[in-house]
């Protein structure tokens, strides 16, 4: 009796040893110890492994707007939702800029455009099934787009690019109000594997749009609007086992997902757990303890953790300091006197001490000094510095010259910042200091971020009335392209009475023209060239003072496998194939 | 015998005087009692050398102003000063003999066992002295059971019996009432019932009638007197009301500034008071048969500070006869108790002649 | 007695109505008075660049196009009779008591609250037991020996406890006992699932929260006891020859505890409305956290729900305290 027990224990021990040996042999870097260096995941795959099993635990300090792929607007949800919702196209898991590459997902290939980029046709893969085994058809994709873009009173949280770009002469009211079988006329489904989008204007980056989870199929019979989130029907490699609003989501393998239909997903872990509303410092500690593998939001560790990590060479090796596809900048109101004069704007460009701003924002870990509008991880970026100053610390003489050219000795103006973002307030203070040296007196007004665009800085009339000449701002693109980035902040058509994002109110015909030209240009290289030109033109207009290229500091768990920090996800790790070496 | 040898023979401490038979000790014998409270301002000498004795069946009234040390004396006998947070700081000297046992040097547990059984106390304000959250019955039961190993039921019967004895109507019903549901007089009766629970041989009543109206006062005093007769206990009654004294006391002790200034059988003291302070007390006594206007002036001035007791006679700053010439006496000399006829003691520098003259000529006619 | 309770309940209902009305005004009336339009309000609950039709539809769905008093009336009516919401293909019925649907993610508030309440209650009850026991014990011992080393030491600790913010002690407790020496669990487990785990994960939170309160209660008990032990009835109890422990326990503490019960009722009721910072620090998904979520999202129904719940508990525990008071102190009559 006793003997056999010992033998059994010994047997179990040796099996686990063998398993450990196996997994070691498999990937060479298992067992929780990684010899990867800092930033390794921005240049290559860290802990590449095909090891299956285990639970991958995600945690986030907030709650996502929604797990419903048709009702979300967060990059991390775009990233994560692919585990259970396959969009037509997506980004290939790859480090850094390599992650910006579009690959077909539900579709079998990229969209075929005709009509100069106004009509886009996709063929979806054969043999696709939902978690319940029912087949996925192109009609489900059409329905997904309809519900997410044309019923915004119900599903209001995602963007509405399809609504903006699809033809809709009949004013289709969405699937919940319009129960006709036809649905939106501008999306055609000639057969179960084909879907055709008819746009109202040429749009050569449509593949980026269909990379949104809004194209992930939703079976109409299972959709009950806002409640769909409680029983999402999976088309991906995982399906929901449980979902508790604001607390936890648990995903398990989807047995009806067929790897033959999916070149991207590998279905490594047995289970995926997402813990919501966990204190950020707790997440950071759990990450280091190996109890949480990924901080889902991917916005970086807490301030105090950051100091710990970068001062400890061992811990620092497990960090990635990645660009977040985001620019921290200050918009100059081109419609407000005297900033309607480009020379006055140039004075600001020269005067700002970007190093002190960078310091106020948290130092180089939180961003590199920026000299262009497009950040380096967005296609179209070209390194230039139109308003170069010594050491990026501002040039008082040049600024004063510009001010003289503008016919001013002093300027009194107001600068706005979001009161609940301390680093933004601090950076505005640094700007004010620098401007004072050249004779521009700016006083700060702070507003809550929730109403910054709807009630304050995003309301041109408000700015005019309150002499707001300068506005602190951050911007990230909805999809990693020059158009995705620049369109909303430079296009004169984007100016609106409230919720305006073209804070400079730039109305430069050349910029508008080049944007329109770029989006109808089929050739990627030619498009990127145009984006670089737009960037230069807008800088020439001195509409924007780029401050820093936003960076995040991520802790890369040594237990997590297949880790790549992708530019397509604002520097987040690509969540598609993260596995674990933990049992 | 050994007990007596402890006494020592302090000057002017007459009670256990050498003349008395050493074998005969009174039931309650207080000898040179000192109760001092150290404070930040100095030592408060609340009682500073007090002696008296009392036998079973006798009633002693201690009179004096507030702050004269009467209440402190009674609490000292009960051993209550030493309890609680501040108990440690109290300095007690002298001896208290109760039925042959010395209490000051006795272990606290022994004194606790005597409390409530051999000696019991009635307090001035029965409303605050009874626990507001417990019924009268519960409180009596508690007092009985702590000294008698009986069931709650037996104790309750005893409580009802006691309430009945002190004249509370429908005792079986009122036993479950709370103190606040009683009238003032009833409450004091209940309080008395509680203190009598274990037939104490010494009953100390600290101003038992002060909080009551006049008619009830008389009833309560009658009750105490009756009970004393019934139980043959010794009673120490503390009061500032000489009317009460006249009604109930066998012996009277006048306290001033923590010391005894006059003591003797009540008839003697009332007929021939020897101390100017006693005169003052008598003068301040309200009388129904007299007009308010020609009342004799009460004692003027404030009671003395117990930290810096005036040197010499503590009463001299207030004494109207301080300037009467005295032989061979300096102001800083303290008058000691001296025995006059009939066991009448007093401590005054005035000559016996002066005192007799002042009393008969100046004081008595005005009373 | 019965009529007393009925009157108190009516008063409580009126109070709750006032509380909700005030919350309503803060959220709806004040922004309107400040010049915000219903459109702007609706825009907060919709994604980027909405069309005018989208805004109008959302405005209508959320009832923002109605006058504030009508919205308020619908809310109150929903609590009593339930309400229907038209989001999407199906009409969502929200059973009474319907606290409305979250504007932001369209989840019914009431089920959320009932799900979260056990977490908050677990936190509150555990912490309350600890702080009552420790606070009262320390307070009594201190009061019996004022000025002693124990008294000074513990009152010093108490002062520190009161002045230490939750986000400090909480983080410290987490760091030490959950990470440095992993004695305690990290993720909340419902009591019904595993009581041992439940307690194990909650102990750091309980202790951190209790530290704050027991400090207050120790001081409260101490001063109450000091006062009570000087009462005449304590002298009487001693004069009866009672043991000192009976005097302290049966006579002293009984009287000193009554005011503490009052304070406790208030504190406990408030805590059931959510211990915001504690829940945040320990990542407990309780009621307080829900309120914070509602405030940051400008999501009125959430805030309203928690406010109402918190107010309800405060009122309830006030009533309980009064009843308890009457039971404890026979002099108190309920009328």
UniProtKB/TrEMBL annotation, chain B:
<dbReference type="GO" id="GO:0005524">
    <property type="term" value="F:ATP binding"/>
</dbReference>
<comment type="similarity">
    <text>Belongs to the ABC transporter superfamily.</text>
</comment>
<dbReference type="InterPro" id="IPR003439">
    <property type="entry name" value="ABC_transporter-like_ATP-bd"/>
</dbReference>
<dbReference type="InterPro" id="IPR050388">
    <property type="entry name" value="ABC_Ni/Peptide_Import"/>
</dbReference>
<dbReference type="InterPro" id="IPR003593">
    <property type="entry name" value="AAA+_ATPase"/>
</dbReference>
<keyword id="KW-0813">Transport</keyword>
<protein>
    <submittedName>
        <fullName>ABC transporter ATP-binding protein</fullName>
    </submittedName>
</protein>
<feature type="domain" description="ABC transporter">
    <location>
        <begin position="30"/>
        <end position="282"/>
    </location>
</feature>
<dbReference type="InterPro" id="IPR013563">
    <property type="entry name" value="Oligopep_ABC_C"/>
</dbReference>
<keyword id="KW-0547">Nucleotide-binding</keyword>
<keyword id="KW-0472">Membrane</keyword>
<dbReference type="Pfam" id="PF00005">
    <property type="entry name" value="ABC_tran"/>
</dbReference>
<dbReference type="InterPro" id="IPR017871">
    <property type="entry name" value="ABC_transporter-like_CS"/>
</dbReference>
<dbReference type="Pfam" id="PF08352">
    <property type="entry name" value="oligo_HPY"/>
</dbReference>
<keyword id="KW-0067">ATP-binding</keyword>
<keyword id="KW-1003">Cell membrane</keyword>
<dbReference type="InterPro" id="IPR027417">
    <property type="entry name" value="P-loop_NTPase"/>
</dbReference>
TrEMBL record, chain C:
<feature type="transmembrane region" description="Helical">
    <location>
        <begin position="9"/>
        <end position="30"/>
    </location>
</feature>
<feature type="transmembrane region" description="Helical">
    <location>
        <begin position="153"/>
        <end position="181"/>
    </location>
</feature>
<keyword id="KW-0472">Membrane</keyword>
<feature type="transmembrane region" description="Helical">
    <location>
        <begin position="255"/>
        <end position="277"/>
    </location>
</feature>
<feature type="transmembrane region" description="Helical">
    <location>
        <begin position="201"/>
        <end position="220"/>
    </location>
</feature>
<keyword id="KW-0813">Transport</keyword>
<feature type="domain" description="ABC transmembrane type-1">
    <location>
        <begin position="117"/>
        <end position="325"/>
    </location>
</feature>
<dbReference type="Pfam" id="PF19300">
    <property type="entry name" value="BPD_transp_1_N"/>
</dbReference>
<dbReference type="InterPro" id="IPR045621">
    <property type="entry name" value="BPD_transp_1_N"/>
</dbReference>
<dbReference type="Pfam" id="PF00528">
    <property type="entry name" value="BPD_transp_1"/>
</dbReference>
<keyword id="KW-0812">Transmembrane</keyword>
<keyword id="KW-1133">Transmembrane helix</keyword>
<feature type="transmembrane region" description="Helical">
    <location>
        <begin position="303"/>
        <end position="325"/>
    </location>
</feature>
<protein>
    <submittedName>
        <fullName>ABC transporter permease</fullName>
    </submittedName>
</protein>
<feature type="transmembrane region" description="Helical">
    <location>
        <begin position="119"/>
        <end position="141"/>
    </location>
</feature>
<comment type="similarity">
    <text>Belongs to the binding-protein-dependent transport system permease family.</text>
</comment>
<dbReference type="InterPro" id="IPR035906">
    <property type="entry name" value="MetI-like_sf"/>
</dbReference>
<dbReference type="InterPro" id="IPR000515">
    <property type="entry name" value="MetI-like"/>
</dbReference>
<keyword id="KW-1003">Cell membrane</keyword>
């Amino acid at each position: 009796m006793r003997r056999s027990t010992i033998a059994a224990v010994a047997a179990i021990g040796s099996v686990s040893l063998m398993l450990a040996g196996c997994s070691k042999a498999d990937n060479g870097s298992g067992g929780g110890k990684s010899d990867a260096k800092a930033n390794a995941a921005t240049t290559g795959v860290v802990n590449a492994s095909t090891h299956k099993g285990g639970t991958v635990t995600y945690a986030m300090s907030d709650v996502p707007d929604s797990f419903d792929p048709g009702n979300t607007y967060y990059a991390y949800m775009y990233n994560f939702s692919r585990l259970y919702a396959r969009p037509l196209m997506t980004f290939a898991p790859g480090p850094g800029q390599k992650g910006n590459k579009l690959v077909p997902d539900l579709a079998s290939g990229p969209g075929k455009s005709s009509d100069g980029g106004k009509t886009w046709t996709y063929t979806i893969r054969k043999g696709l099934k939902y978690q319940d085994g029912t087949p996925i058809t192109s009609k489900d994709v059409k329905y997904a787009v309809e519900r997410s873009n044309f019923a915004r009173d119900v599903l209001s949280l995602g963007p509405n690019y399809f609504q903006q770009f699809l033809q809709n002469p009949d004013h289709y009211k969405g699937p919940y109000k319009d129960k006709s079988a036809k649905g939106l006329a501008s999306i055609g489904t000639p057969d179960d594997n084909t879907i055709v989008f008819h746009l109202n204007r040429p749009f050569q980056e449509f593949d980026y749009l269909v990379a949104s989870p809004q194209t992930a199929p939703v079976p109409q019979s299972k959709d009950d609007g806002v409640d769909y989130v409680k029983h999402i029907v999976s088309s991906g490699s995982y399906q929901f086992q449980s979902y508790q609003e604001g607390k936890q989501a648990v995903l398990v393998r989807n047995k009806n997902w067929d790897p033959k239909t999916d070149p991207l997903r590998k279905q490594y872990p047995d289970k995926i757990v997402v813990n919501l509303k966990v204190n950020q410092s707790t997440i950071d500690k759990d990450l280091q303890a190996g109890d949480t593998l990924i901080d889902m939001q991917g916005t970086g560790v807490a301030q105090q953790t950051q100091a710990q990590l970068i001062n400890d060479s061992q811990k620092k090796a497990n960090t990635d300091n990645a660009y977040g596809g985001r620019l921290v900048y200050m918009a100059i109101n081109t419609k407000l006197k005297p900033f309607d004069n480009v020379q006055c704007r140039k004075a600001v460009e020269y005067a700002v001490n970007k190093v002190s701003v960078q310091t106020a924002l948290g130092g180089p870990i939180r961003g590199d000094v920026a000299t262009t509008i497009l950040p380096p991880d967005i296609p179209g970026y070209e390194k230039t510095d139109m308003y170069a100053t010594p050491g990026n610390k501002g040039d008082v003489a040049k600024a004063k010259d510009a001010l003289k050219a503008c016919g001013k000795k002093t300027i009194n103006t107001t600068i706005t910042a979001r009161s609940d973002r301390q680093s933004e307030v601090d950076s505005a203070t640094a700007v004010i200091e620098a401007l004072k040296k050249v004779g521009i007196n700016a006083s700060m007004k702070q507003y809550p971020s929730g109403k910054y665009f709807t009630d304050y800085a995003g309301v041109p009339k408000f700015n005019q009335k309150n002499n707001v000449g300068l506005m602190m701002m951050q911007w990230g693109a909805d999809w990693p392209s020059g158009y995705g980035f620049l369109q909303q902040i430079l296009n004169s058509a984007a100016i609106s009475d409230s919720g305006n994002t073209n804070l400079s109110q730039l109305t430069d015909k050349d910029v508008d023209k080049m944007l329109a030209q770029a989006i109808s240009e089929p050739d990627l290289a030619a498009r990127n060239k145009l984006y670089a030109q737009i960037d230069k033109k807008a800088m020439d207009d001195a509409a924007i003072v780029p401050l820093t290229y936003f960076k995040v500091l991520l802790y890369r768990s040594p237990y997590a496998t297949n880790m790549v920090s992708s530019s397509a996800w604002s520097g987040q790790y690509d969540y598609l194939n993260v596995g674990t070496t933990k049992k | 015998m050994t007990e007596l040898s402890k006494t020592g023979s302090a000057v002017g401490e007459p009670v256990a005087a050498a003349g008395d038979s050493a074998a005969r000790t009174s039931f309650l014998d207080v000898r040179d009692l000192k109760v001092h409270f150290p404070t930040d301002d100095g030592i408060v000498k609340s009682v500073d050398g007090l002696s008296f004795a009392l036998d079973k069946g006798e009633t002693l009234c201690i009179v004096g102003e507030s702050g004269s040390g009467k209440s402190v004396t009674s609490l000292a006998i009960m051993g209550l000063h030493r309890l609680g947070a501040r108990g440690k700081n109290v300095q007690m000297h002298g001896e208290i003999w109760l039925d042959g046992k010395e209490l000051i040097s006795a272990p606290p547990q022994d004194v606790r066992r005597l409390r409530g059984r051999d000696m019991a106390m009635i307090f001035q304000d029965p409303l605050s002295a009874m626990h507001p959250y417990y019924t009268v019955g519960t409180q009596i039961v508690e007092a009985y059971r702590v000294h008698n190993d009986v069931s709650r039921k037996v104790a309750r019967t005893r409580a009802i019996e006691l309430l009945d004895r002190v004249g509370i109507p429908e005792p079986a019903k009122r036993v479950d009432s709370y103190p606040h549901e009683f009238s003032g007089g009833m409450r004091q009766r209940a309080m008395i019932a509680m203190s009598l629970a274990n037939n104490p041989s010494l009953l100390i009543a600290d101003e038992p009638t002060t909080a009551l109206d006049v008619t009830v006062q008389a009833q309560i005093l009658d009750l105490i007197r009756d009970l004393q007769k019934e139980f043959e206990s010794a009673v120490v009654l503390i009061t500032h009301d000489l009317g009460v004294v006249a009604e109930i006391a066998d012996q009277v002790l006048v306290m001033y500034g923590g010391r005894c200034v006059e003591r003797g059988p009540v008839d003697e003291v009332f007929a021939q008071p020897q101390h100017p302070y006693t005169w003052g007390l008598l003068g301040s006594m309200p009388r129904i048969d007299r007009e308010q206007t020609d009342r004799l002036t009460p004692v003027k001035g404030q009671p003395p500070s117990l930290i810096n007791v005036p040197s010499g006679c503590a009463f001299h700053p207030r004494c109207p006869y301080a300037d009467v010439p005295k032989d061979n006496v300096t102001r800083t000399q303290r008058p000691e108790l001296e025995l006059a006829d009939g066991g009448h003691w007093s401590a005054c520098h005035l000559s016996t002649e002066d005192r007799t003259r002042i009393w008969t000529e100046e004081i008595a006619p005005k009373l | 007695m019965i009529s007393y309770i009925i009157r108190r309940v009516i008063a409580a209902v009126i109070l709750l109505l006032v509380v909700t009305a005030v919350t309503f005004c803060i959220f709806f009336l004040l922004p309107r008075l400040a010049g915000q339009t219903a459109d702007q309000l609706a825009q907060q609950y919709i994604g980027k660049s909405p069309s005018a039709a989208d805004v109008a539809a959302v405005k209508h769905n959320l009832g923002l196009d109605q006058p504030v008093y009508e919205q308020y009336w619908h809310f109150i009516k929903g609590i009593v009779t339930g309400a229907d919401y038209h989001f999407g293909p199906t009409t969502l019925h929200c059973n009474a008591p319907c606290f409305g649907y979250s504007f932001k993610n369209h989840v019914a508030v009431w089920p959320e609250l009932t799900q979260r309440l056990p977490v908050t209650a677990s936190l509150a009850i555990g912490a309350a037991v600890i702080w009552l026991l420790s606070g009262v014990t320390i307070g009594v011992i201190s009061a019996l020996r004022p000025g002693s080393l124990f008294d000074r030491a513990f009152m010093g600790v108490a002062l520190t406890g009161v002045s230490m913010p939750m986000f400090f002690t909480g983080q410290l407790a987490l760091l030490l006992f959950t990470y440095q020496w992993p004695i305690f669990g990290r993720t909340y487990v419902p009591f019904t699932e595993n009581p041992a785990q439940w307690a194990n994960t909650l102990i750091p939170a309980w202790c951190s929260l209790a530290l704050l309160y027991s400090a207050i209660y120790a001081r409260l008990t101490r001063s109450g006891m000091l006062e009570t032990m000087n009462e005449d009835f304590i002298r009487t109890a001693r004069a009866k020859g009672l043991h000192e422990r009976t005097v302290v326990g049966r006579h002293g503490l009984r009287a000193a505890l009554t005011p503490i019960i009052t304070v406790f009722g208030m504190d406990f009721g408030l805590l059931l409305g959510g211990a915001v910072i504690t829940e945040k620090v320990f990542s407990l998904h309780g009621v307080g956290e829900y309120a914070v979520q509602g405030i940051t999202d400008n999501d009125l129904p959430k805030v309203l729900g928690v406010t109402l719940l918190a107010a309800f508990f405060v009122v309830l525990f006030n009533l309980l305290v009064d009843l308890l008071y009457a039971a404890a102190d026979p002099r108190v009559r309920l009328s």
